[in-house]
Write a structure and sequence with these properties.
14 strands, seven-stranded parallel sheet, alpha/beta, globular, binds nicotinamide-adenine-dinucleotide, binds UDP-4-deoxy-4-formamido-beta-L-arabinopyranose
C-alpha cells in the first residue's frame, strides 16, 4: 500500500514526504514541477535514505494518475498540488480556477475509477470570511476575497458533495494557517520564485542580503503593536499533522474540516524581533502602507485537531526562525545550484 502525494516536490509536500518516509510509509509523488524542483525530493532521499518514486505529470491527466495509482497500489491520497499566490490569482483568475479545480475533479475521478477512498486536501485559513471573530473555529462563516481563496472554498464544497455520494470515503480538509520554517537539517525549505509575497521568506532574504529592507505593511492596525497578527506554524509540525490526518482517515468516514495552526498570534514586528534574536542578524525594515485585502488578526482555535487527530504543534517561534535561517544560509539561491 502506498500514499499518492500530489504536489509532493513543493514546500509543504516535500516536508510531508520526509515525515511519511521516516514513519515507514511508502509514497509516490506526482508533480508537474510548475513551482518546484525535483532537487527537493533528491534532498529528502539524502535525509531519509529512502528512494521516492516520482512522476513529472499533471494531476489533471486522469489516465496518467490512474496508471500511477494502479502501479503503486495506492490506498490514500494527499492532494497538495495547486497554484497558491493570492496576488497572481487576481491577475490570472482563469488559470487558478482551471488548475486548482480541474486537478481536484480529475483526481477524484481517478480515485472513483480505482476504488481509492481516502483523501487529505490542502485547504487554507483563507476560506474563513473576514467577519469572523478570532480565534477561528471550523464552524466559522466561510467566504473569500480573491480567486485563490475561492478555489479552496469551491474545492471544499466539491469534496463535501463527493463524500455525500460516496459515503464510504474519508476526506479530511486541512485548513493551514501560516506555514513557515524548514526541516532542521537545512537541506529542504521554502524556495519561492521571484520576489517573495509572504513575510518570512522576505525576512530571511533581507537578512541574507538579497533584499535591501523589509516593508512592514501597515502599523496602524488594531493590534498590540499596530502590525498584522498571524498564526505562524512550523512546516514540520504541519507535515506531522498530515501524518496524523492519514491515520485519522483510516478510522473515520465522511468529510471533516480541521484547522492546523498553533492557536497563538504573532505580529510582523514580533517575527522580525524573533528572527533577529534567534539568529544574531539584523533585518532592516521600513513601515509602509497597508497591503490591500489584509486583515488585522488571523489565528486559529486548534482544539479540534488535538481532539480528533491527536496532533498539536510542538515547535516555537525560535525553532521556526532558526530553521528558516539554516535553510537560507546553506541555500542562498534555494534549490538552484
Ligand atoms: P508549492 O507551490 O510549493 O507546492 C505545490 C506543488 O504543486 C508545486 O510543486 C507545483 O509544481 C505542484 N503543482 C501545481 N499544480 C499542479 C498540477 N496541476 N499537477 C501537478 N503538480 C502541480 O506550495 P505549498 O506551499 O507547498 O502548498 C501546498 C498546498 O497547500 C497548496 O495547495 C496550497 O494552496 C496549500 N496552502 C499553502 C499555504 C502556504 O502558505 N504555503 C497555506 C495554506 C494552504
Ligand atoms: C503575513 C503578515 C502582512 C509581507 C497568505 C495568503 C494565505 C495563505 C498564507 C495560502 C501580514 C505582513 C507580509 C511583507 C509584511 N496562503 N507582511 N511585509 O497574508 O497571512 O497569508 O499566505 O493559503 O491565503 O493570503 O501571509 O506571509 O503574506 O503575511 O508586512 O513583505 O506579514 O501584511 O500581516 P498572509 P503573509
Amino acid at each position: 500500500m502506498s500514499i499518492l502525494i500530489t504536489g509532493g516536490a513543493g514546500y509543504i509536500g516535500s516536508h510531508t514526504c520526509l515525515c511519511l518516509l521516516n514513519k515507514g510509509y511508502d509514497i509516490v509523488v506526482v508533480d508537474n514541477l510548475d513551482n518546484s524542483s525535483k532537487e527537493s525530493l533528491v534532498r529528502v532521499t539524502e535525509i531519509t535514505g529512502r528512494e521516492i518514486p516520482f512522476y513529472e505529470a499533471d494531476v489533471c491527466d486522469t489516465e496518467k494518475v490512474i496508471e500511477i495509482i494502479k502501479a503503486h497500489n495506492v490506498d490514500s491520497v494527499i492532494h497538495f498540488a495547486g497554484l497558491k499566490a493570492v496576488g497572481e490569482s487576481v491577475r490570472m483568475p482563469l488559470e487558478y480556477y482551471e488548475n486548482n479545480l480541474v486537478s481536484t475533479l480529475h483526481l477524484a475521478e481517478a480515485m472513483v475509477k480505482t476504488g481509492v477512498k481516502k483523501l487529505i486536501f490542502s485547504s487554507s485559513a483563507t476560506v474563513y470570511s473576514a467577519d469572523n471573530e478570532v480565534p477561528l473555529t471550523e464552524g466559522g462563516r466561510l467566504g473569500c476575497t480573491n480567486p485563490y481563496g475561492w478555489t479552496k472554498y469551491m474545492n471544499e464544497q466539491i469534496l463535501r458533495d463527493v463524500s455525500v455520494a460516496h459515503s464510504d470515503w474519508s476526506i479530511v480538509l486541512l485548513r493551514y494557517f501560516n506555514p513557515v520554517g524548514a526541516h532542521e537539517s537545512g537541506k529542504i525549505g521554502e524556495d519561492p520564485s521571484g520576489i517573495p509575497n509572504n513575510l518570512m521568506p522576505y525576512v530571511s532574504q533581507t537578512a541574507v542580503g538579497r533584499r535591501e529592507f523589509l516593508t512592514v505593511f501597515g502599523d496602524d492596525y488594531d493590534t498590540p503593536d499596530g502590525t498584522g497578527v498571524r498564526d505562524y506554524i512550523h512546516v514540520m509540525d504541519l507535515a506531522e499533522g498530515h501524518v496524523a490526518a492519514v491515520e485519522y482517515a483510516q478510522r473515520f468516514t465522511g468529510c471533516d474540516a480541521i484547522n492546523l495552526g498553533t492557536g497563538v498570534g504573532y505580529s510582523v514586528l514580533d517575527m522580525v524581533k524573533a528572527f533577529e534574536e534567534a539568529n544574531g542578524v539584523k533585518v532592516p525594515y521600513k513601515i509602509g502602507p497597508r497591503r490591500p485585502g489584509d486583515l488585522a488578526m488571523v489565528y486559529s482555535n486548534p482544539e479540534k485537531a488535538e481532539r480528533v487527530l491527536g496532533w498539536k504543534a510542538r515547535r516555537n517561534l525560535i525553532d521556526m526562525c532558526r530553521d528558516i535561517w539554516t535553510w537560507q544560509k546553506n541555500n542562498p539561491n534555494g534549490f538552484k545550484k
